[in-house]
Amino acid sequence: MHMQVKIKKLNSDAQLPVYGSPHAAGADLFACIGEDVTVQPHQTVMIPTGLAVELPAGYAGFIYARSGLASKRDLAPANKVGVVDCDYRGEVKVALHNHGETPRTVARGERIAQLVVAPYVVARFDEAEELSDTVRGEGGFGSTGSR
To answer: What is the pLDDT of residues 132-141, one digit of tens each?
Structure first.
């Protein structure tokens, strides 16, 4: 399935998102910075992409870590998954966090995260006195794991 998404370059150095393979779910986002940025251990730095997007109604952009950057260099979005709402028109930025003990440098034009465009449902929340019973019940936080 393909969908057209309008993207505006806010900076002439910005790079459009790029899919790494024909069946990739996420498109790489690039750091649009004037010079390299060092992220200290346990520090979060806002890295601009130089882009704004116009997502169709009913869709959102979800910003996920790039697996190699996270596993090899300890750099991943601080909020785990960023959300770009369809009515947001500001610059897409990545709150990149250094989870490691070594300072890490983000280079100008480096791939820093991936953007997945996906549909979402707007729920109507109805207050209820009772909820239906299930086998699981109130078990949470590992309660369905093996013994």
So the answer is: 998 888 877 7
- CA 123 to chain CA centroid, Å, is 22
Q: Which residues pair with 122 in a beta bridge?
A: none
82 and 95 Cβ atoms separated by less than 8 Å: yes
How far lies 37's CA from each of 10, 49, 136, in Å?
A: 20, 13, 47
Distance CA 40, CA 79 (A): 17
Length of the chain: 147
Joined together, the tokens standing for residue 121 give 């449902």
If you compute the radius of gyration of the chain from its CA atoms, what whole number of angstroms results?
19
- The predicted-structure confidence for 47-72, as pLDDT tens digits, reads as follows 999 999 999 999 999 999 998 889 99
